[in-house]
Amino acid sequence: MTHGVRLKPLWWVLVPEEDAAATMPLDPSTGRRWLEGGPRHAASAQSVYFHPGTMAEAQRLRTLLDGIGRPFPTTREVHQALAQAPELTRLYEFHAEPGDRWYLRNTSRMEKGSPFENRRWQLVFDTPGQSLTLTLEGEQLETLFKLMPLLNGELTFEQLVQSLRGDEPGKFLLRQLAHGGALEAAPLPSFCVGDLPELLFLGHSSLALRHGEELVVIDPIGFPSNEQLSGTTRPFFPVISRATAFVISHHHWDHLHFQTLVRLPRQTPFLVPRNQQESFINPSVARYLRHLGFTDVRECDPWEEVRVGGLRLRFAPFYGEPFGLGSHFDGLTYHIEFGGRRLYGTVDAWRDELGDMEATVARVAEWGPLDLFLFGASDQHHAPPYNAPGYRYFSNELQDRPDLMRYHPNTGDAERWARVLRPRILMPYAEFIFDGARRMDLTFDDLEQQAPATLGDVEASRHKEAHLQWCQRLSQLSRNVGLPLLVLHPMQGVRA
Prior knowledge:
26% of the residues lie in helices and 23% in strands. The chain has 15 helices and 26 strands. Strand 18 and strand 19 form a beta hairpin.
């Protein structure tokens, strides 16, 4: 059997050197570094535009504020805490405002050039044994971006070497990955797009929708766990690399996922929200992708229609995920017709300072009968609330805006929308679920009969209390609206 070379399914991150030690402490007893928290989105559009060192300083400031022990510390309490640790505010400035409101504002300026240039990075792989750590800068980072799409297991060693002919930096980096234990041999994938199900759940909120030989992948995100579930007949990265087009709903790290993006072919079209006014809370998805090397990025507006072969995509507004005051960003919800079916995805949309989803849902309902309604319902709140704005600043401002404390929709929101949309099937976007079991595909013709058992099947593999409560709320939602609920395992699909 012929084998290809691929990255092992493992955690890896790219972190500014100034942030690495604080955000990824080394365990001297094992030689391993902690990768599963904040550092895993260190190179995302949410964080990459800030000055290097921001992540580390923000982490120390959070610890300082947590020590006060109050959800809304007063100006005096924060000032006293900072007076004891002045070294913590190299990148953050303290501002006191009338009404006992305070801010710790990040002083970064948003540059127009590439956020990846002119800084040193640490590339860390959680390989067996000790973590593999490489320091990269300048052209070495460009080399990494070019090498990653070649490591999806579709090239033999000989083909890989041929692809790197004349690229000495690429060969050097490949040798470092091989010697560090980050690569493995795997059977070459054997599949064709036409054999995939019309709907393939990839994990979290990511879907692949097929019509004939055309494949649209939404918010691609691959974790080691869902990659391990894929097998040789439906291998994760080779499958999504065959996409005719990608759709990005919004810029958050779990929808515009750096570790997945850098492994995709750079010429495939991306359909992304049009950026109206760039800021730290609203970075341009198009600009970010172009700095990663993607050459065909198309910005789309709400209510715009795009055809991808036989698939019809209609975009709608996105209101939601408030992260502090003035945090509205440009995003898209999507209505897609594929293979004679219709899916509408609201993802994380709910409401923010500028509006809510009620009028949007009503208008989408006018487009006709809906087969699948994909929605979020995790009911997540900011805790502690001074963390809400992320790296932009810390503040007690939300004590005056309790309506912005919740940043994700809940099942009550989904129930209202379901009563308007009246879909055939409810499909909750699976709350950070990337693991599970291999399951046979379901069929659209029998989906009403097959769907009810899927929630219990997924629930049986959950251990976190938050996931179990989520499943219980979903079950109640299904009963309330009298509609079947579909919850798939990663890499499980629905066929015609």
